[in-house]
Design goal:
Number of helices of chain B: 13
Structural class of chain A: alpha/beta
Largest interface: A-B, 210 and 205 residues
Distance between the termini of chain B: 65 Å
Order of helices and strands of chain A: HHHHHHEHEHEEHEEEEEHHEEHEHEH
CATH superfamily of the largest domain in chain B: Type I PLP-dependent aspartate aminotransferase-like (Major domain)
CATH superfamily of the largest domain in chain A: Type I PLP-dependent aspartate aminotransferase-like (Major domain)
Number of strands of chain B: 12
CATH architecture of the largest domain in chain A: 3-Layer(aba) Sandwich
Number of strands of chain A: 13
Largest sheet of chain A: 7 strands, mixed
Number of domains of chain B: 2
Radius of gyration of chain A: 25 Å
Number of domains of chain A: 2
CATH architecture of the largest domain in chain B: 3-Layer(aba) Sandwich
Strand order of the largest sheet of chain A: 1-7-6-5-4-2-3
Oligomer: heterodimer
CATH topology of the largest domain in chain A: Aspartate Aminotransferase, domain 2
């Protein structure tokens, strides 16, 4: 067995050194009734070639978004990831290391986390960021729970432009950790007024920017309305590339930014692993969840980095911790950081401009398809269309023509039949004019 | 001394000044600034086309002013992160005996397969007719986990172990509420991972700590005394964090169930018993499995993880969405619940850590049922071998046999002036990542060693000899040697107090010189 270096001779010698006749003696503490007496009904070990064949066969039964014109967004975005990113994250020193608990021999991980935290703070326009969370949805609910700790209030207002998965994760935690949610109805046009929902019990308002329907709104007034009543503004961002083109949430008064970082450096991967971004104001840092990396010096006075402020965390505080989170998304954060380092200021701006141009071009083209109208007015790289037919059937018909034509709103809001004709469409730098033309033609055929 | 040709015949005696260099580098150990300190405005590591002219739809929200990101070309970025990588210890480089973390070999086949476009380039919201192979893969992972644990159901979406704990404990609370039972107390052994009490507290339970007995196990009498009608659950790690199997576990489960409570098992240490013991046969109601421990998905410097939770029949109806079902039209995703299910909600965006499922399945298929049993056996054998070979020079608080990890305390360092931390730092100079230190909390100066099944006997012997030599040196009174360690790592000991008291959590540009008035 290729992953097991011990030989039978080694095993016998080791048992002898321990002073027991067999492995069964080492398992003597297992109650007799609980010992498996027979092999499990599972196949035996296989060589690399056989395993590769088996899984390649499964992979071949999927239609990868990279193989066809694909216009899906709604919280996960396909971008071109430079080759250097995957090469670097596969270096064994990054891939096969653990959480940097021994900083003297983990400076590689710690320094990139420090760089990552800085990049996230700059992008979001916030003062500090942590070393990442599981994904955007879990980062968002952690932000709500942090606002509840900070304000000692119990209610969160959720925008109708918030991704339903983010809303549902918040609803699960609300029910079982004991806070209230005031959830606005789905808001395809960005017309909602959340300020009127804020009262003296409101810990925070959560708004997505750009919204799940694609529209973008100035949040300055909402931030002021929150602060006037002692509430915090939490801004969720699912497409982080957008912040290369649109105003930073921190610039508009956000108190916490909870974002999905997948769009930089990370593939679609059928939904995971992704990485949650979490940024806030310096004065709130001791209520932040998750790992934080900080700068310090070593015994010779040289700059170095360590995990810090861990008195917030479960391994020190146990039941008094700010969160139960332990693992972050280290390797996904590394991919994010390398991709953003390659882009730099100029590259990110250009990438964001390309995305916006692609989406505007596609939106204008699709809006000319008979019966189709554009719901979103201002948007970044994603927008909502109203179709003359139920969107789910249209998407299935497009898939038969080998076009992945967006996400039907009903997939995300199955309980809302009134959204049945809405389609969420995204375009990024990977979508060519030819693909867009093919999409428009196919949509015309399907709707005919 | 030089030879006839002037070549030195013996190395020069090293001196302190020999390590001082002009560049700050020391041979292959390169100093590397932050990326922000390598900036040249306008430079970039990508070549993108100019965007076509369109009428902007950003309105007044177009971003103004610089973001502050540095500009680097690709060679600089590649060199930067290559140099950073070289400052890390890794399993690829050496034995990594972090107890409870399971730093086993990460097969590269798994990495290759996770990157197949048929998995890596799938959007989670594609029509399910275009993702049948992916859904079948998820179903296969579920099947293997259910067979290996002897449990009837599994929730796959949790993003890591602690997230799995949250999933299992919420399922327990949902089941209790469903029967109108408002229990408020959760029993957690003192030796538990910090995530256990943190999870229980996060969902509103009062944590009641269970003491360990003299054998490092749950004190059955103390447990019985604490059980009552307000106890919702016990959270027990098995094998536990002292590295031993809870031999009363079947009786513990019986008493917990008799009291109307549920049994949550922290499955961080499942890797010790795979193929030999099924948690389902022990009376467990819920257990998370760290795919990044037992099933070799890479730890990646602290994630991403994956924490599926197996559930008993009593808890299965409360599993969170989504899940995969196989029907007459193939596989489909249940995203809101159906039938008799009473899902407690959703824990995460989309469908779970697919990239980790691919890697874990590749590992399971590679090992097969026979290989998984051999792997857990080898892990337990290696830990017992280390325990046997170090017991005379270090101090083990509990007698063996142990499971996949062996626990020592700091009694062997008594009166030497050397602490567990000092001892750990000296291991760094010897080329080893230290074991887990100061955990579990139930013994003083804990050192928890988990060698894993990935080490050869030669590797284990070299490790043992190093540890014996260090123990002898400590006992010989050479405390200064330990206090100054590490000397040979990329950094000496770091000032963690300063980091916490004066937090510097991001880079900031140095202030530009003030303009003259």
């Amino acid at each position: 067995m290729r992953y097991l270096p011990l030989t039978e001779v080694d095993r016998r010698g080791m048992l002898a050194a321990i002073g027991v006749p067999s492995m069964d003696n080492l398992y003597q503490d297992v109650p007799e009734s609980a010992r498996l007496k027979r092999p499990l009904a599972l196949p035996d070990h296989q060589g690399e070639l056989a395993v590769e064949r088996a899984l390649s066969e499964l992979a071949a039964r999927n239609l990868p978004a990279s193989a066809v014109p694909s216009f899906l967004g709604a919280g996960a975005y396909r971008h071109h990831v430079p080759a250097a990113v995957d090469h670097l994250i596969q270096r064994g020193e990054f891939l096969t290391s653990y959480t940097p608990y021994q900083p003297e021999i983990s400076q590689g991980t710690l320094q990139y986390l420090f760089e990552f935290q800085t990049q996230v703070a700059l992008l979001t326009g916030m003062e500090v960021a942590n070393a990442s969370m599981y994904d955007g949805a879990t980062a968002c609910v952690e932000a709500v729970m942090m606002a509840i700790r900070l304000t000692k209030r119990k209610k969160a207002v959720l925008s109708g432009g918030l991704h339903p998965h983010y809303r549902d994760v918040a609803a699960t935690l609300a029910r079982y950790t004991g806070f209230e949610l005031d959830m606005a109805a789905p808001d395809p046009t960005g017309a909602e007024d959340l300020a009127t929902r804020i009262d003296g019990e409101t810990a925070c308002v959560v708004v997505q920017y750009p919204a799940v329907f694609g529209h973008i709104r100035d949040l300055t007034g909402l931030a002021q309305a929150c602060h006037a009543k002692g509430a915090l503004l939490i801004v969720a961002v699912t497409e982080i590339v957008s912040l290369g083109a649109i105003r930073a949430p921190g610039d508009m008064g956000a108190d916490i930014v909870a974002a999905e970082g997948q769009a930089l450096g990370n593939g679609l991967n059928f939904g995971g692993p992704y990485l949650g971004l979490f940024a806030t104001r310096e004065k709130f840092v001791r209520q932040m969840p998750g790992r934080l990396c900080g700068q310090t010096v070593d015994a010779e006075g040289r700059r170095g980095f360590v995990l810090t402020l861990s008195t917030r965390e479960q391994h020190i505080r146990r039941e008094k911790a700010t969160s139960n989170i332990c693992t972050n998304s280290g390797l996904c954060a590394l991919a994010f950081t390398i991709h953003l380092s390659l882009l730099g200021e100029a590259g990110l701006r250009q990438l964001a401009a390309l995305n916006h141009a692609a989406a505007v071009t596609l939106a204008e083209r699709l809006a000319r398809v008979p019966g189709v109208s554009l719901v979103s007015d201002q948007f970044f790289n994603e927008f909502t269309l109203r179709l003359p037919k139920p969107a789910a059937a249209v998407v299935d018909a497009l898939a038969e023509r080998r076009i992945l034509g967006g996400v039907p709103a009903r997939r995300l809001w199955p309980e809302r039949p009134e959204l049945g004709h809405l389609l969420l469409v995204a375009a990024t730098e990977v979508n060519t004019p030819t693909e867009m033309a093919a999409f428009a033609t196919a949509l015309e055929e399907v709707l005919r | 001394m030089t030879g006839m040709e002037g070549r030195p015949t013996r190395p020069a005696t090293p001196s302190a000044s020999a390590t001082a260099t002009v560049s700050g580098h020391r041979g292959l150990a390169m100093e590397q600034p932050l990326i922000f300190e390598l900036d040249a405005p306008g430079r970039t590591g990508v070549d993108l086309p100019a965007p076509p002219p369109v009428a902007s739809r950003l309105g007044a929200l177009a971003r103004q002013g610089p973001i502050g990101l540095p500009g680097l070309a690709e060679p600089q970025v590649v060199r930067h992160y290559t140099r950073l990588s070289q400052k890390n210890y890794a399993i690829d480089a050496g034995l990594y005996p972090l107890g409870s973390c399971t730093m086993k070999h990460n097969p590269r086949l798994n990495e290759r397969l996770a990157r197949l476009p048929g998995f890596a380039d799938l959007h989670p919201m594609q029509p399910t007719g275009t993702t049948q192979g992916a859904l079948e893969l998820i179903d296969m992972v579920a099947h293997w986990l259910k067979v290996l644990t002897g449990m009837p159901a599994v929730a796959l979406s949790p993003g890591a172990g602690a997230h799995g704990e949250l999933c299992g404990m919420v399922a327990i609370r949902a089941a209790l509420e469903d029967r109108g039972d408002a229990r408020r107390r959760v029993l957690v052994p003192a030796s538990a991972h910090g995530t256990n009490p943190a999870t229980a507290a996060a969902i509103g339970y009062t944590v009641d700590e269970l003491p360990a007995d003299a054998r490092g196990r749950v004190d059955l009498a103390a447990l019985t005394a604490k059980l009552g009608p307000d106890v919702a659950a016990i959270m027990l790690t098995n094998p536990n964090t002292c590295g031993v199997f809870e031999n009363d576990i079947v009786e513990i489960a019986r008493r917990v169930h008799a009291a109307g409570a549920f049994f949550y098992c922290d499955g961080a240490n499942f890797n010790a018993i795979v193929g030999r013991v099924r948690p389902g046969d022990l009376g467990i109601d819920a257990m998370h499995i760290n795919l990044h421990k037992t099933f070799s998905t890479p730890h990646g410097g602290g994630g991403p993880g994956s924490g599926p939770v197996v559930l008993s029949a009593a808890l299965a109806p409360f599993a969170p969405v989504p899940w995969v079902v196989h029907g007459d039209k193939g596989f489909r995703l249940v995203e809101t619940g159906e039938g008799d299910a009473k899902p407690f909600g959703r824990l995460k965006g989309f469908h779970g850590q697919m990239g980790m499922f691919v890697r874990a399945l590749a590992y399971m298929l590679s090992h097969g049922g026979d290989g998984l049993l051999q792997a857990s056996s080898d892990a337990v054998l290696a830990a017992n071998y280390v325990l046997a070979r170090l017991s005379d020079v270090m101090s083990a608080p509990y007698p063996g046999p142990c499971m996949h990890e062996c626990l020592f305390d700091d009694r062997f360092l008594k009166d030497t002036g050397v602490t567990t931390l000092d001892f750990a730092k000296a291991m760094i100079d010897e080329g080893y990542h230290p074991m887990t230190v100061y955990f579990p909390l139930v013994v003083h100066g804990a050192m928890l060693i988990e060698p894993t099944e990935s080490e050869s006997k030669d590797s284990l012997d070299r490790f043992v000899e190093t540890m014996r030599a260090l123990a002898s040196r400590a006992k010989a009174g050479d405390a200064a040697f330990f206090h100054e360690a590490p000397r040979l790592a990329p950094r000496r000991r770091l000032d963690e107090t300063r980091a916490a008291r004066q937090p510097v959590l991001r880079w900031r540009p140095t202030a530009p010189p003030q303009a003259a008035e």
